[in-house]
Amino acid sequence: MTSSVTNSDPLGHALTAYLRGDKSATLTVHTNVSEDEPLPASYFFRSLWEMPELERRALEECQGRILDLGAGAGAHALELQNRGFSVRALDVSAGAVQVMEERGVREVAHHNLFDIPASGEQFDTILMLMNGLGLVGTLDGLARFLKHARSFLAPGGQILATSSDVAYLYEDEEGALLIDLNGPYYGEIEYAMTYEGETGAPFQWLFVEASILQDYAEEAGYEMEIVAEDDQQQYLARMTLSAGAHQANQ
């Protein structure tokens, strides 16, 4: 789930432990804005009906050839394969990639989303779930990714991504927002993961307000719509390239 390749791999080791029978395997998630939180490895192995409604809706919206970014243990890729889709599942964690292969994901890749090869292959759906838009790291990374994705998004294709507005993390007891408007965007949060004493390298994760995502999408030549929202400030967005942007890619 991290956005750059590193040698340490606590996520991969936790997923492998779970697959090997340790159903209690649990990561600890550290951030610079909240207390440490446990993240059970089992969460990455959930079935369709254990997934949040936004994720189930995203799977319903998928079409054509699919690229699943930050695929983890392959829960979404396997469900889509079962529905007859052709899916490539990508993750930066070597352990996650191995777990996906062992679980039967037919096509996996080990690199980050900024290193997707310019092979000429195009995808009809780029899927980014579990607050998957966070993979871009920062607002600058968002702009970079949206530009990069134009090279492997098929005409008429779509990016389906979930994200959320985390302004609530900065509210005081009276509900006022304590945000430094001169500092980095408040949704750019630093994370690290620990498993069994192994802590991975810190990485940036982006939570982006829908209106800001729309601004960045339009700037990069996409049309954006909110497909669904839940009651926890999370949303599913669809971004499609405008006809003019497709012509510019030719």
TrEMBL record:
The keyword Transferase applies. One of its GO terms (molecular function) is methyltransferase activity. GO terms for biological process: methylation. InterPro entries: Methyltransf_25, SAM-dependent_MTases_sf. Keywords: Methyltransferase, Transferase. Pfam families: Methyltransf_25 (PF13649). Residues 66-157 form the Methyltransferase domain. The keyword Ribonucleoprotein does not apply. This is Class I SAM-dependent methyltransferase. The lineage of its organism: Bacteria, Pseudomonadati, Bacteroidota, Cytophagia, Cytophagales.
